[in-house]
Structures are given as structure tokens and as C-alpha cells.
Design brief:
The complex is a heterodimer of chains A (about 550) and B (about 350). Chain A contains 26 helices and no strands. Chain A has about 550 residues and is an all-alpha fold. Chain B contains eleven helices and 14 strands. Chain B is elongated. Classes of the chains: A mainly alpha (about 550), B alpha/beta (about 350).
Chain lengths: ~550, ~350
């Protein structure tokens, strides 16, 4: 019966035309990764340095590909069945929760296996170059990738049991993947070498990230490469942590697969205005802007589509944004204060770098989730058909939708301004740098918004739109950083600079002179790229919106 | 219950005019030369099996689909070339409820009111009015996605009324509703027609349409098969009438059936229902000759308590149009299959 479940899941996944395109794309990508560094002359380095360099790039490429592509499948797996009503049918069969869970898990892992199998020819080419051990290098990289696939597949399934919508499941899963794989490196980067509890915490968190393990495997050195001894047992630590987390998340998911997943009363639409004064007072205190208050009519001067978008979102509502802004403001001021007070000997550049990374992470995580579904949500919920029968023009609808993303992004950008102001006060010479950083971040926000909206508008389903938008944006942010990881060897300064010039994160970090990025001059090239990219995305968005609005 | 013919709102002003409307998708004809007119204050029931072209016709009227040929006008405004004006003239309720997550009913109506540019103060008043009309006041704070299907249909109707359109186009408004909700929706539609709205309604639930519609259009395979009042359509169908004879005793059913078979056209349908002590038959005989049939029954010792004509209802009319088409389609499918074989 488990077999039937796996077959159904895999057949559903594999018979899509997009999967075929994905597999062809992956083969091309992996071939390209190896071809970039394939020796072009007849001489051979007996030390195997060249193959190590190719292997390093290949390993990171494979990991990033896996993390970008895989999570969307488990994330949508259970919630999609719940929405379609087939989960109720499945739970009503003698399969039992654990068979359903393992069926879905094995299907996702098989897909991961297929993705990895696509890389075998490229891996063989790396091995053929010499200097690589079959067990010590190749096998261990694939072992790391399978463990990472297992962890993110189980976490995706767990998130899927808690989500109320497909796109929120995708958003939460990608947030979790980003948090576990990238943000866990932060404390280690900043506190390594110090003797504090923060350094110990950094060590523990470092073991959660597959990137840390990959760095130690491919011999890329420790994150930040501060001249310290690289940890050697990172792979073991990552494997152990991942297996433990997978077991916990797996048991948790199985315990959710029963009647309780449906056992929810319909919302009765409680309104704070109808409650007692004390309840209203506490809600005001807790939420600042109570989402359950009775909203007023949309004013004549406001774009109704913008208001509708705000009201439709759970996360996009004002109380969430205010909390987010407050956290950003407090963190940026706290970091700046810590430097001023001499708590950390980081220097203004590093603090600026942290703030940039924080903001960029927020922008990269939030923008696609707000922007990708602007058109697809309407089409999926059949609201687009209704909008078409209203007298609103297409540009006004698109503008209203974009406004609903611009305003939260502006709030997020403005939230860290106090930190930058304090920074300029401490180091007045940084005024120009800070101005340029703010421009970089604003340009990134606009680019990320328009790109996500344009990519998302090509899809009918919100989950696919969100996943594709995350994939494209994170690729633009992550792939140049892969090249950057190979700076000096195998890539030269010019190659790295050219690759980074399309990356908005790198541009902001180079402007603030963050260690590792201070040698690259990325603006105005990056601004040109973002500007042209934004205009192209806007044109795609408008063209696609006109296309779907045209009478058939 | 108000009979459609009893409503006083019917005027002879054509509001919806379709002329030779055709829509083709490649070689497939979704709508074939549809011509009909609907007057102000009337309710038109558009019926037909799945794929008959009802929704295509409706979508052309609201500007979501362009016809391949022909014209569609509402209140003299062309649905193709002047779609901006059409949007204000028409209230359209599709067969699926377009809902938004995390939006309360009042917010939902407020949003659509704002898209029509209704000023906030007037909008608030208008929302209260349409909520009262559709009986949705009590659910104003509920989230739209948490409403039952019947409630959503009511909210959908409230949305279509917001900008006070002249014509309401409702695609399957009673589909999936329980009997009580269906009756309530029916009464609501009658109320709206009384207020001068012109309604075009599609439905699969034929008795509902028969009760409320001034005009009925039967469509199959993209073509209009019949158009008129329910009675007119019944007459088109009933070249043959169905006569029912109620007997005192079930024992006489068989004898009665034999006498009838001898009295009417050879090969005509005669159905025996011994459980009900009834014999039904279809015939094209005139009234005078029907009397002769009754005389023969009585002379044959059959004790008859009732001898009456059964009125042709919409369902029967619909089936009489739909069946021959189905037969044609099935026949051509068989021929095609045989050819392939």
C-alpha cells in the first residue's frame, strides 16, 4: 500500500511538462558548472587543484539547486490534498497516517534522488579530472545532500500540516530553509574565536547549516575565513542534527495526520468593537492596530485594490508590519549602540554589513511572498473574473497591487534608518556610503518586487508563482555568491566582480565596505542592472496582465 | 408565490438583444447563431445540458468573451465595442464565487462598491440596502471564505446589486443550494424582477425556472432549440399529449390498456401503472376522438374515476429537445468508433 502511495505521488509529480523542462535545465546547469572550469590547455596539474576548484563550485551549485527546488514539493503536498478534499479520502482508507507520511516522504526523496542523478555525468567529469576521492569527496558530498534533502522534506511536510493555504506553506517552508541554512551561519561568523556563550551558540547553530558542512567538505575554509582552524567534524555534526530534527519533525507530522487536521470550526467573525472595553483595551495594547476591529469604508482617494490586498493578507496587515518595523528599528539601534559602547570590536563597516544583510534577508524573504501572488491569487480564487467586470482600468489595478507591496517594503527600509543615522553620527565620513547603501537597498526592493510580480504573473497557481519567484530571486542573490566563494581560486578578480555586479546584496555590502566585498566596485553597474531589470519586469507584468484581461 | 405572468413589471422595451451570435474555438462551435430578445423587467431562464453554450453566451454579454460573429446589445449598448458602459449596466454573478481570504463580508462589498467609484457615504448606505435585500445583514462580520455555499451565493448576489445595474446576469444561482435556500433565492429573484430589474438566469434545476421565468430559452450544442414562455414551449413540444386515466381498481389496468391500444394510433406509448391504478398514454388525437376513447373504456366495463391531460412541464420539454440531440451525438460517436475500428 505504501508502494501505491509513492507511485501516485511520483506519477503526479513526474508527468508534468514542467518537470521535464526542469530536468533538462538541471542537466544543462550542472554541465555548465563543470564546463566553466574545465581545463582548456593540454597541461595537467598533478596536485588535483584544478579538479578541487571545479568540485567546490559543483558542490555548492548542487546544494543551492537542491535547496531552491526541493522544498516546494513537500510544502504543498499535504495542504494541496487538504484543499482538494483528497486528504479526507486518504485518511479514510486503511493506509494509516504513517504510510501516508512515508509515501509522501519517499516520493519527495525520490525526486531529490532524480535531481541528484542529473548531476552524475557532471560529477563523473569532475572525478575524471583526477585529484578527487570517490569516497572521501564525491560520496560524502552526496551523503550531505541526501541528509539535507531528508531534513527539508520532513520540515516541508510538517509545515504543510499546519498551513491554511498553499502559498503560506511555500512561504513558511522557504523561510525555514533560509533560516536553517544561511542565517544559522551568522552567529558563528561574528563570534568565532571569542570566548563567550554567543560563540558556543554560534558553534551549535553552525551545525544546522548544510553550507557549513559543504564548506568543510570542499575545503573552502570556514565561513568568513578569519584565519582560524576550520572545523573538521561539521559534516558529522550536521548529519546528526539533521537526523534528530528529521525524526522529531517526522513523528510530529504523523501525529498531525488525523481527524484533528479538519476539526476546526468555521470562523464566526468576532469583532473587537462588539467586545467588552477591557478586551478592546488589551487588544489595542497588544496589536497597536487591531486586525479584528471593524474597518471603515475605503475612501474615494484610495486605490481600492491596494486596500483589498492589505485586508486579504494575514501577514501583510498593519499590526504585523508594525511589529516587524519595531524589531528592525530596535535591532539596528542596538547593534549601533553595541559598537559605540565598545561591547563588540567590529567596526562601523561590519555593523553596517550586518544591518545590510538583515535588511536584504528580510527583503528577499518578504518581497516574493507579498508580490509573487498578486495576479495568480486573483486567478486562482476567481476574483480576477469579477475584477474584470468592474470599471477599474488595468493600470489602476496593477498600481493598486504594487502599492500594497511598496508600502510594507518602505516601512521595512525606513525601520533601519535610525541605525544608519547613528552610524553617520559616529563616523561622519560614512555619509556618502550610507546614502549609497540606502539607494542600493531601495533599488533591490523595487527590483525584487517587480521581478517577483512579473514571474508570478506567468502562473495560474499561487504556490507555483511563489516558488518560481523565490527561485528566480534567490538564484540572482545566491549564484553570484557561489562565484564569490571561489574568489582568487578558481575565479579571478574580474570574473567575480562581473558576477557580483548583478547581485544587489553584494553591491550594498561593497558600498558599506564589508570585509570580503570591499575590493569590488559594483556600482553603478549594479544600479544599471537593477534599473533595466525592473523596467523589463514591469513591462512583462503589464503585458501579462493585459493578456489575461483580454476577452477570449 | 407570484406567477411570472401575473407580474406587472413586464414592458415591451427590449433590453437584452442577441442577434446571430456565434462563437467558434477553432473548428468547435460553442455558440451557433443565437438570436433572442429580452424585455425590461422580465426573467429569462437559459437552460441546457453541460456544454450547451449558456456560459459562453453569458460571458459574451458581460464582455469576457468576444463573439466570432453577430451582435449582443444591452440597453442599446454594444457588449463588444463599449464594454466600459456594459460594466455599469450589468451585474454579473459567475457560477463560482470569487472569494478573497481574510476578508469580511462587509469589507468584500465595500471593495466592490469602491471599484465602481461609489462615494463612501453613498456606498455605506447602498451596502446596507443590498444586505437587507439579500438577507445578509447578520453575516456582515463573517469572513467570506468561512461562509456556507448558500450564504456565499447571497453575498454574490448582494455584490451584483451594489451598483444598481439594470440587468442581472446570474450563472447557476441556485446550484448546490439546499431546498430552503433555493426557495429563498427564488423569492429573491422574483422580488428583484418586481423592482424592474431584467434578469438572465441559467439553471439546471428546471422546476425552479418554470416557476419564476417569463421566458425560457432551451439550448443544446450551442444552438437555441426553443424560446418562449413555459406554456409556449410546452405547446411546441406537445404535438402529442399525455393523457392519464385513473381507475377504481388496479385489476382493471391491463384490460384498460388493451382497450386504449385499440382506440388510439397503432404503436403509441401506453404505460400501465398497476400500483397507482393508472394508465398513461401519449396521443395526437383531437378532443372529440379522445371522448370516444373514454366511451370505449366505460363500455368495456372499466370503472374510471378520472380522465385528464397531464400538462407538459419544463423538464419534459427540455428532455424532448435534449434527447434527440444526444441520440445524434451518440450515433455519430458510434459511427466514428466503427470507422476507427
Amino acid at each position: 500500500m505504501l508502494n501505491a502511495m509513492v507511485m501516485r505521488e511520483l506519477t503526479t509529480l513526474m508527468r508534468r511538462r514542467r518537470m521535464m523542462a526542469l530536468q533538462c535545465g538541471l542537466v544543462a546547469l550542472f554541465t555548465l558548472l563543470v564546463a566553466i572550469r574545465w581545463p582548456t590547455d593540454a597541461r595537467m596539474a598533478l596536485t588535483g587543484t584544478r579538479s578541487q576548484q571545479v568540485f567546490q563550485l559543483f558542490g555548492y551549485g548542487l546544494l543551492v539547486t537542491l535547496l531552491l527546488i526541493l522544498p516546494v514539493f513537500p510544502a504543498t503536498s499535504i495542504i494541496r490534498e487538504k484543499k482538494q478534499g483528497t486528504l479526507a479520502l486518504l485518511l479514510n482508507t486503511p493506509l494509516g497516517p504513517w504510510r501516508i507520511f512515508f509515501g509522501k516522504l519517499v516520493a519527495v526523496l525520490s525526486l531529490a534522488g532524480i535531481i541528484l542523478a542529473m548531476s552524475f555525468p557532471a560529477a563523473s567529469a569532475c572525478y575524471a579530472m583526477g585529484g578527487l576521492s570517490l569516497y572521501g569527496d564525491l560520496w560524502r558530498v552526496y551523503q550531505l545532500l541526501m541528509v539535507a534533502a531528508l531534513l527539508y522534506a520532513v520540515l516541508g511536510l510538517l509545515v504543510s500540516t499546519y498551513s491554511n493555504s498553499i502559498d503560506s506553506a511555500v512561504r513558511m517552508t522557504y523561510g525555514l530553509v533560509l533560516g536553517l541554512s544561511v542565517l544559522t551561519l551568522g552567529p558563528h561568523y561574528f563570534f568565532q574565536g571569542t570566548k563567550s556563550y554567543l560563540a558556543d551558540l554560534g558553534e551549535i547553530l553552525y551545525g544546522f547549516s548544510p553550507f557549513g558542512a559543504m564548506m568543510s567538505l570542499t575545503g573552502a575554509g570556514d565561513v568568513g575565513s578569519k584565519g582560524l582552524i576550520t572545523k573538521t567534524e561539521v559534516l558529522g555534526q550536521f548529519t546528526m542534527t539533521s537526523l534528530v530534527l528529521s525524526v522529531i519533525a517526522g513523528v510530529w507530522t504523523i501525529s498531525r495526520l488525523n481527524h484533528t487536521i479538519f476539526d476546526q470550526a468555521r470562523s464566526q467573525g468576532t469583532i473587537s468593537d462588539d467586545q467588552t472595553q477591557s478586551v478592546r483595551f488589551f487588544r489595542r495594547l497588544f496589536f497597536l492596530v487591531d486586525p479584528q476591529r471593524r474597518s471603515s469604508n475605503i475612501s474615494s482617494f484610495t486605490n481600492p485594490v491596494m486596500v483589498k490586498e492589505f485586508r486579504c493578507r494575514r501577514f501583510g496587515r498593519l499590526h504585523w508590519l508594525l511589529r516587524l518595523v519595531a524589531i528592525c528599528a530596535v535591532l539596528s539601534l542596538g547593534l549601533t549602540y553595541a559598537t559605540t559602547a565598545g561591547t563588540f570590536d567590529w567596526g562601523v563597516e561590519t555593523i553596517g554589513g550586518i544591518m545590510v544583510v538583515m535588511q536584504v534577508a528580510l527583503l528577499a524573504l518578504i518581497t516574493p511572498s507579498l508580490s509573487a501572488g498578486l495576479m495568480s491569487t486573483e486567478r486562482e480564487s476567481r476574483g480576477w473574473q469579477l475584477l474584470q467586470t468592474t470599471p477599474m482600468s488595468i493600470p489602476r489595478i496593477v498600481w493598486g497591487k504594487l502599492l500594497s507591496v511598496i508600502l510594507p517594503l518602505m516601512l521595512i527600509l525606513c525601520a533601519t534608518l535610525p541605525g544608519y543615522v547613528v552610524m553617520v553620527y559616529i563616523e561622519p565620513g560614512m555619509k556618502l556610503q550610507v546614502q549609497r547603501v540606502v539607494i542600493c537597498l531601495a533599488a533591490m526592493a523595487v527590483f525584487a518586487m517587480l521581478l517577483s510580480a512579473a514571474v508570478g504573473s506567468l502562473f495560474k497557481r499561487t504556490a507555483a508563482a511563489t516558488a518560481a519567484a523565490y527561485g528566480v530571486l534567490l538564484s540572482i542573490c545566491a549564484l553570484p555568491l557561489l562565484i564569490w566563494l571561489g574568489r582568487d581560486a578558481p575565479f579571478g578578480h574580474k570574473t567575480v566582480e562581473a558576477a557580483l555586479s548583478v547581485n544587489p546584496i553584494a553591491a550594498a555590502l561593497s558600498v558599506i565596505r564589508m570585509p570580503g566585498f570591499q575590493d569590488y566596485s559594483l556600482i553603478p553597474a549594479n544600479w544599471w542592472f537593477l534599473g533595466i531589470g525592473s523596467i523589463a519586469s514591469l513591462l512583462v507584468l503589464l503585458a501579462q496582465t493585459y493578456r489575461i484581461s483580454r476577452p477570449q | 408565490m407570484t406567477n411570472p405572468q401575473q407580474r406587472e413589471t413586464v414592458k415591451d422595451i427590449p433590453v437584452v438583444v442577441l442577434e446571430h451570435l456565434t462563437k467558434q474555438y477553432g473548428s468547435f462551435t460553442a455558440l451557433n447563431d443565437l438570436t433572442l430578445t429580452l424585455n425590461a423587467g422580465q426573467i429569462l431562464g437559459l437552460i441546457g445540458p453541460n456544454g450547451a453554450g449558456k456560459t459562453t453566451a453569458i460571458k459574451i454579454l458581460v464582455g469576457l468573451i468576444r463573439p466570432t460573429s453577430g451582435t449582443a446589445k444591452i440597453d442599446g449598448v454594444d457588449c463588444v465595442s463599449d464594454s466600459a458602459k456594459i460594466k455599469r449596466l450589468v451585474g454579473y454573478m459567475p457560477d463560482t464565487f470569487g472569494s478573497y481570504d481574510n476578508m469580511r463580508v462587509r469589507e468584500y462589498l465595500d471593495f466592490f462598491g469602491a471599484t465602481f467609484g461609489i462615494a463612501p457615504r453613498i456606498r455605506a448606505k447602498r451596502i446596507s440596502e443590498v444586505m437587507e435585500t439579500t438577507g445578509t445583514e447578520y453575516m456582515k462580520d463573517r469572513f467570506v471564505e468561512s461562509l456556507s455555499h448558500g450564504m456565499q451565493q447571497r453575498v454574490g448576489l448582494a455584490r451584483t446589486l451594489l451598483h444598481d445595474p439594470k440587468v442581472l446576469i446570474l450563472d447557476e444561482p441556485v446550484n448546490g443550494l439546499d431546498p430552503q435556500a433555493r426557495i429563498e433565492m427564488r423569492d429573491l429573484l422574483i422580488q428583484l424582477a418586481k423592482r424592474g430589474k431584467t434578469l438572465l438566469v441559467t439553471s439546471h434545476i428546471l422546476p425552479e425556472l418554470a416557476r419564476i421565468c417569463d421566458r425560457v430559452a432551451i439550448m443544446t450544442h450551442g444552438k437555441l432549440r426553443a424560446f418562449g414562455t413555459v406554456d409556449e414551449i410546452g405547446r411546441q413540444v406537445s404535438q402529442q399529449r399525455t393523457i392519464e386515466s385513473q381507475l377504481v381498481s388496479a385489476d382493471q389496468v391491463s384490460n384498460a390498456a388493451n382497450i386504449i391500444r385499440q382506440a388510439i394510433e397503432p404503436g403509441a406509448d401506453v404505460v400501465e401503472a398497476p400500483d397507482e391504478a393508472i394508465v398513461r398514454f401519449r396521443t395526437a388525437l383531437p378532443e372529440s376522438e379522445l371522448g370516444e376513447v373514454l366511451t370505449r373504456l366505460i363500455q368495456g366495463g372499466i370503472r374510471v374515476t378520472q380522465f385528464r391531460e397531464v400538462q407538459t412541464d419544463l423538464e419534459e420539454a427540455f428532455m424532448s429537445f435534449a434527447r434527440p440531440q444526444e441520440a445524434i451525438v451518440n450515433k455519430s460517436a458510434t459511427v466514428g468508433g466503427a470507422a476507427h475500428a
